[in-house]
Amino acid sequence: MLILPHCWGWIGLKISPMQKPNTPICLRIHTGAASTFHLPTVTQWYGKANPLGGLPKHNWSIIDAVTTATVSLRRGEWHSLSSSLAAAQPDLIPLIRQRRSAQAFSGKTSSLPRDTFFKMLEALLPSAAQMPWDVWNLPTRLHPVLFVHRVEDIPPGLYALSRTAAAVTTLRSAMNPDFLWQKPEGCPANLPLFHLLEADAREAARTLSCHQDIASTSSFSLGMLAEFDSGLTEGAHVYRHLYWETGLIGQVLYLQAEAAGVRGTGIGCFFDDSVHEVLGLRDTQFQSLYHFTVGSPVVDTRLEMLPPYSHLPEERQAPEQL
């Protein structure tokens, strides 16, 4: 039991003028064990608790404007999932069902084997021979820039993954001319990963991601650079396509992390102008659209973990229904 004087305002209670200001309030701190909360009987409660969420909501009218402006009247072709690909990946369904977002990472245990790191990045390359890219029938326009912190036998620093051959030239010409653009030692020949700068990038990654620790205590974090100007010349609807592609990249990283025994999470808050400044980008030829991070998770045992799809009727929770 914790006795805290002068803390009425902390819990949203208005004090009666007749109430002594130094009357203590008793709070029971929940530690995870089963316990019963008892209101104190030594004092009398006055007033009414303030409702939560009482502030007026901001009307973000620009969201509706963007939604309307980016509607595409053109419909793409639907692709069915290759049965041979599905049969070749029998462990995919359990990974999908166990996939969770990390809330925090342990910097002490986030060291990732080099080959695992390379395998994760290879899974991001567009290929008709691997899911989900076998059903992606739009141009490839997203290229990750990585802040590597804790990957075995890989120097920490800044790296770039060009997901198309043509993007190597455009990325290199758009970025800081002092970057190295060297293939890391042991990197597979088919993986267009380039070492740009060797440095301790943890503080930079954290600052660029709105000062969030998850960007620096992980094995690596990344920003997804989009071919922005050239894409939008085809129409405003491409704006949606760019975000669809970031979503696919993120989902692949989620599942790759689960398969490797670690965990990932998206980072939606970041300073895009500062990211561009770090990379030496001078215009919107490339635009940072989304960030992601992978590492060894710190599990918050205070949170209840429900089975996947527990909100659905039981007959729809079977793995074969996915």
TrEMBL record:
CDD domains in the record: McbC_SagB-like_oxidoreductase
Gene Ontology MF, one: oxidoreductase activity
Origin superkingdom: Bacteria
InterPro entries, per database record: Nitroreductase, Nitroreductase-like
Transmembrane portions of the chain: none
UniProt domain Nitroreductase: residue ranges: 96-295
Name of this protein: Nitroreductase domain-containing protein
